[in-house]
Amino acid sequence: MGISIDKEKCTGCGNCTSTCLFGLIEVVDEKACIKEAGCTLCGACRDACVFEAIRIETEIAKTLLGDEYKGVWVFAEQRNSEIKSVSYELLSKGRELANTLKTELCAVCFGYNIKNIEQLTAFGANKVYVIDDPAFANQSEDQYVLELVRLIKQYKPEIVLAGATPFGRSFFPRVAAILKTGLTADCTGLDIDTEKHLLRQTRPTFGGNVMATIICPAKRPQMSTVRPRVFKKNPPDATRKSQFIKVDFNKEAITSKTRLLNFVADLTEKVKLEDADIIIAGGRGLGKPENFNLIRDLASVLEAAVGSSRPPVDEGWIPYYHQVGQTGKTVCPKLYIAVGISGAVQHLAGMQTADCIIAINDDPNAPIFQVATYGIVGDLFKVVPLLTEKLKGG
Amino acid sequence: MNIIVCLKQVPSTTEVKIDPKTNTLIRQGIKSIVNPLDSYALEESVRLKERYGSRVTAISMGPPQATEMLRDAISSGADDAILLSDIAFAGSDTLATSTTLAKAIVKIKNYDLVICGRQTLDGDTGQVGPEIAEMLGIPFIAYVNKIEEIANGKLRVQRMVEDGYETIETSLPAVITVVKEINVPRMPSLRGLTKAKSAQIPTWTTQEINAEKETVGQAGSATWVVKVFYPQRVQLAEMLKGDPETQAKALVEKLREAKLI
Predict the structure, then answer these.
(1) Is B198 on the interface with A (CB under 8 A)?
(2) B2-215: what CATH class?
């Protein structure tokens, strides 16, 4: 186990030093040296070495997996009885994975009075495991964890996916920890290594500056949370049939470790950023809080949500829940219009997967133009009102 | 009351730039900092100490250099700090990391509350907090934006969910992760700085935390990185030129063409 450098092959060229994400490689006496203590064995340096001097030994603790584990599962999250859109996106992707693996696709859904549950079948599930009970009315994490762990132990799926929603990212790691298996967070790519029969999970890291492809070779199930709006929904097919399985659970055994005392809805946000098709976001270039009205006007014409980069939030121009970026929300709309936003990496991390990005900024060198589809260099105070007017005119 | 706060040292990504020629990270002069969201966890621990007279222990798994970050934690109000460092911890995924941290927490033994930041700047997974809770078999609450009260072995917090705020109560010990709304971290105090200078920060290895070698580091990791690459940012914006009127008109046309509006 570990990383080593073949001193015979190493020429001290230093190519590897700049690839290390953690800055752990130095060239000393014309040979590369790695400070092993901070190394994550990611392999970036190995791939960069043209002399094949870097070796990473990976002993696979080959537990006997056999073919005991079968099937692709999607945890279909609901909130207030409505199944989330990301569940359908995952079923669409899951269908493709299951077809490649020649296995079945199952949906798991917990809640109470769940609406349109037949949609899980229409989007591709062969089996649907359901708990529809008042005990699951709130997203009580403890109960969800317990029941999902029990189902996974009983039916042994090889892959289990959930949406990388706030709920998914809180409860799924707990399931993985109990099962002592791997979980890859916030994936934006999934495919199958058909030769090794493994799920390849790709995710952004370092604020979206680096992509990593991750596997879970020796533990089952392979689990991922997947960023909403990344995978496209297939058209639902209402003629599909599935097996509907009502899951029995022991009501007496359910004791939640946490108790929900109160819920206060946040009514200030009309269109939720995470679900919005169109987002208009403003940045430091707006200059003062009142100028967010330019953004709001354009947003109301397009029925869009209002976003912000970090500076306006720090300045107190707009509340935090509008913030898009690494310390705010991650969004993936069809259209993202960035107004007066220069495009710091932290902001880009939260929005660069949008389908179409428009940048309006007076600085032609602003990094936002590097990720934009269309750019306008100009005075936002002139361009934005004109844009609003033209769109209003139909 | 005893509080354990988990910190991670991360590269400061504000300084991360991509070299357009080689498409790799430019790392010159990159600084290591405490993960920003962890500094809110530390601040909250110190505030609880001021409120309830607790003792705050900061722990971190990382290379020996992370000692400096732990020293900073002491100057900001932590009472003790412990570094978990061992070559055997290299290559840890979230499963191995949370196993290591949980083992250290068990060794510390007397704890009522474990506080972590919501997620880190580099790995961005947000998984270590919830995984620690399950390893310890104690309650977990994510996204805490306010600690309302701790009394009679119970903790009451407010946390942010996607469409509002929940008030949740649980028994102690428990693990929580905090969001940046919870507080504004303070600057180190002069007294803290003096204390930090002479503080003894022990290093615990696999042996000290009684962990089995195959449960930590790469051996204990379920997931492996098989490839690291840089996303192509070749998409250069098509610039819409002219006066504002022409620009606005061109943009509306482009959006209509692409059926985006």
Answers:
(1) no
(2) alpha beta
